Amino acid sequence: MGIIGDGLDRALQGAFTRPIPKSAGAQMRYLVKQLKGTRAVAGLLGVSQRTVERYVKDQIRRPRADLAQRLEDAVRQRWQPRVRERARKQAAASTGLVVHTRARFGFTAAPGTTDDARIRDLTLALPPHHAARLLDAQDAGAGERQLRALAAEALGEMYFRDGGRRAAGLHVEFTDVEQAEFDL
After folding, report:
1. What is the pLDDT of residues 157-179, one digit of tens each?
2. In what order do the strands lie in the sheet with 97-107?
3. Fewer CB within 10 Å: N-end or C-end of the chain?
4. Closest CA to 52 of 68, 29, 33, 34
């Protein structure tokens, strides 16, 4: 996906109550159960149905690096959906999100002011309504550009505008994102 989307996913995965299966066979069996068949899993992972069957029977134990990554990502996407949904609802209703980011922030302001874009490290608590907008956009399939715009708006309001109490005319740009981590 992208830096913002992946950060939101990692935050939700932090709410998991159990670790995902470790072995390739256990991961494959989980996917077969979730997708109700080996053919669907084979199509998802881009391997043959026979290969999936061999993993399920533990005839193959160690997948290639690229397949191992696709397999783990597929399992992680589907792991504990109710726990993930409960964490989303809690962040959107009461707790919000904490964002840790290192990015270039700048304003549309008069030339030569101290508002020129520069790299900043921010750790900031976003209130529930901003968390809800980010998570809803991600659920709706928003791309990285849209998620960045929503994150920039939230960070701009909470940090640069002090929760809406200062400089309401400023426009915050959120570019050159090096990292973005979210905590529930």
Report:
1. 887 766 555 555 455 556 666 66
2. 118-126, 97-107, 172-183
3. N
4. 29
